[in-house]
Backbone:
C-alpha cells in the first residue's frame, strides 16, 4: 500500500502528528535520523549509573488533549508536580533567597521579605497574566488561517473572537506582552529586583536576547500558558525523564499502525513537477508518499533539505531572513550527593524546584552583553533542576543524584572549540560553586551541549530550542513566515508539524496535533 505520509523526524511532534493521521487510517512512516526516537525529548545514560533528560528537561506545556487522545498514562507516562516552583538564591548570604510557589499566600509572604507593595500586587499580576494566557490556550490547538482569500479572512475573524473575552484592560495587557521588553513589562508591576528576576528569567530561556529586548515579554508569557496534572502554570517532572513522554508516544503510534524507522537520516526532499513526492535517505533509499511532513525546523528543512530552485523565490528570500538562535548551553551532572546552597542550607523542597541563579535583570542583561562580545557569559544565567529528588529511578546508587543545568547566554553562531567550551563550562560551574560551595567536588560525570552541540545532535539550527525565534513577526499565521502559517509548505504536498509551526516551541504536541488536523481537513475538502 502506498504511503499517505512520510514524516521527517521522530521528535514528539512528529510522533503526535503520525498518531492522529494513523488513527484516521492513513498509512504513515517516520524516518528518524538518530538511533533513538524522541528528538530533544529523550533520556539517556550519560555517565555509568546516571540517567537524565538530555535536552528538554521539564514538563508543563504538553497539551492535555494530546495526553488523553494518545492515552499516554496508559502507556506508562507519569508526571509529578514540583512541590514549589522556583528557588532564587540571590547571594551566598544565609537567608538571602526567594522561594516561589506552594500557594499564593505563601508566595506573597516570600515576596513581602523584599517588598510589601509587590506582595500585595502579586495576585493581580498572576490574574492579568493568566487572562492573556487563556487566549494562548484557546489558540494553541487551532490551525492558523491562510492569509489570502475569503476563507482566510473568515478563519482569521473566527480565531480572533477569543480576544472578545478580554476586557479593555486585558487587551492592553496582551498588547504589552506581545510588544514590550520583559524589563519594561515587569517594571510596570513590581519594584523589587528579586521579584522581577524570578519572573524575568522565563523571558530569556532559549531566547538569545537581553530582557531589555522588545518582544521579550512574550517569551515570558509563552512559558506560563501550560499546566501539569491539571494545575495551570505548574511545572513537573516526567518519571523516567523526558524520554518517558516520547516512549509512551511511540507506543501509541505503533498501536495505531505507524511504521517507525530509526537511523534513517533524510538527505533530501524529493520535488517533482513542483510538488513534494517523498524523501531520499542518506542511504540512498527513496521513500515516496502522497505528502511529506517535516518535524525538523524550517531553517533545516528549507535551507538544507530542499533545493533552493524548488522553492518560490519570494519564499526563499523570506526564509533567508528567518531568525534562529538560542543562547543555551545544556549540561547534565552526575553528583555523588546533594548540593548545599549557602542562602538556604540543608535539604528540603527547594532542591526539587527550578533553582535560578540570576539575581537581577541587570545580571541577565550583562550575561547577554558578554556573549555578544566574547561568545559566552563570564557569569552565565543558570537554572538547575535535580530531578532525582523526586525520581530515584534516574540513578543506580541511593544517595547519588543527577542535575540538569540550562544555561544562558552563549553565542549560537560560535563554532565552539574545545578550549572555548571548557572556558564556558568553567564559568557555569563558578556560578554554581558560588551559590552552593563544594558542589564541584560532588561531580563524578558530566555531559555538555553547546548551541552547536545541540545543532549537531538534534538538528536544532543555531541551537534553537524553539526551531525559530518566538517574536511577533514569527508567530501564529506568520510562523514560520506569513503565507505558510497554516502548516502548509510553499509547494504542494509539503507540510510542517514541528516547533517552527504554530504555536511554537516547548514539549507541547500542539504543532503535531494541528498539522494532522490540517492535513485531514485538506483531504476532506479535496
Residues:
Amino acid at each position: 500500500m502506498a504511503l499517505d505520509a512520510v514524516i521527517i523526524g521522530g521528535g514528539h511532534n512528529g510522533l503526535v502528528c503520525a498518531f492522529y493521521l494513523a488513527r484516521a487510517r492513513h498509512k504513515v512512516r517516520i524516518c528518524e535520523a538518530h538511533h533513538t526516537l524522541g528528538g530533544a525529548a529523550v533520556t539517556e545514560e550519560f555517565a555509568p549509573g546516571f540517567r537524565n533528560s538530555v535536552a528538554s528537561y521539564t514538563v508543563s506545556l504538553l497539551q492535555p488533549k494530546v495526553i488523553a487522545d494518545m492515552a499516554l498514562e496508559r502507556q506508562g507516562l507519569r508526571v509529578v508536580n514540583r512541590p514549589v516552583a522556583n528557588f532564587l538564591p540571590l547571594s551566598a548570604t544565609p537567608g538571602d533567597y526567594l522561594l516561589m510557589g506552594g500557594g499564593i499566600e505563601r508566595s506573597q509572604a516570600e515576596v513581602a521579605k523584599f517588598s510589601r507593595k509587590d506582595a500585595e500586587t502579586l495576585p493581580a499580576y498572576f490574574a492579568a497574566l493568566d487572562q492573556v494566557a487563556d487566549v494562548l490556550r484557546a489558540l494553541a490547538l487551532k490551525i492558523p488561517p491562510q492569509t489570502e482569500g475569503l476563507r482566510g479572512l473568515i478563519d482569521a475573524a473566527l480565531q480572533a473572537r477569543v480576544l472578545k473575552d478580554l476586557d479593555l484592560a486585558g487587551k492592553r495587557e496582551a498588547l504589552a506582552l506581545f510588544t514590550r521588553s520583559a524589563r519594561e513589562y515587569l517594571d510596570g508591576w513590581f519594584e523589587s529586583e528579586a521579584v522581577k528576576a524570578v519572573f524575568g528569567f522565563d523571558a530569556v530561556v532559549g531566547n538569545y536576547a537581553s530582557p531589555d529586548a522588545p518582544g521579550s515579554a512574550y517569551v515570558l508569557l509563552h512559558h506560563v500558558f501550560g499546566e501539569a496534572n491539571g494545575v495551570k502554570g505548574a511545572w513537573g517532572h516526567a518519571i523516567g525523564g523526558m524520554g518517558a513522554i516520547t516512549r509512551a508516544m511511540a507506543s501509541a503510534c505503533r498501536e495505531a499502525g505507524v511504521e517507525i524507522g530509526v537511523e534513517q537520516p533524510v538527505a533530501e526532499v524529493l520535488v517533482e513537477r513542483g510538488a513534494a513526492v517523498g524523501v531520499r535517505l542518506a542511504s540512498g533509499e527513496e521513500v515516496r508518499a502522497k505528502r511529506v511532513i517535516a518535524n525538523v525546523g524550517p531553517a533545516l528543512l528549507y535551507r538544507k533539505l530542499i533545493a533552493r530552485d524548488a522553492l518560490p523565490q519570494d519564499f526563499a528570500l523570506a526564509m533567508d531572513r528567518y531568525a534562529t538562535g538560542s543562547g543555551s548551553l545544556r549540561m547534565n551532572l552526575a553528583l555523588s550527593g546533594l548540593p548545599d546552597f549557602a542562602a538556604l542550607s540543608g535539604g528540603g523542597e527547594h532542591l526539587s524546584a527550578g533553582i535560578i541563579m540570576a539575581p537581577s535583570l541587570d545580571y541577565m542583561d550583562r550575561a547577554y552583553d558578554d556573549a555578544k562580545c566574547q561568545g559566552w557569559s563570564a557569569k552565565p544565567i543558570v537554572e538547575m533542576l535535580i530531578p532525582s529528588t523526586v525520581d530515584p529511578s534516574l540513578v543506580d546508587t541511593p544517595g547519588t543524584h543527577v542535575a540538569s543545568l540550562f544555561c544562558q547566554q552563549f553565542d549560537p553562531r560560535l563554532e565552539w572549540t574545545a578550549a572555548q567550551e571548557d572556558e564556558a563550562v568553567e564559568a557555569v560551574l563558578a556560578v554554581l560553586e558560588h551559590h552552593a560551595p563544594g558542589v564541584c567536588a560532588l561531580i563524578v560525570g558530566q555531559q555538555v551541549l553547546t548551541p552547536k552541540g545541540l545543532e549537531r545532535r538534534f538538528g536544532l539550527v543555531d541551537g534553537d530550542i524553539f526551531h525559530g525565534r518566538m517574536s511577533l513577526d514569527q508567530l501564529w499565521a506568520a510562523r514560520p513566515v506569513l503565507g505558510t502559517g497554516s502548516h502548509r509548505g510553499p509547494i504542494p504536498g509539503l507540510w510542517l508539524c514541528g516547533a517552527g509551526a504554530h504555536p511554537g516551541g516547548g514539549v507541547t504536541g500542539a504543532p503535531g496535533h494541528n498539522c494532522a488536523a490540517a492535513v485531514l481537513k485538506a483531504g476532506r475538502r479535496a
About this structure: Residues 460 and 502 are 17 Å apart (CA to CA). The chain has a mean pLDDT of 93. Residues 116-140 form the longest helix (25 residues).
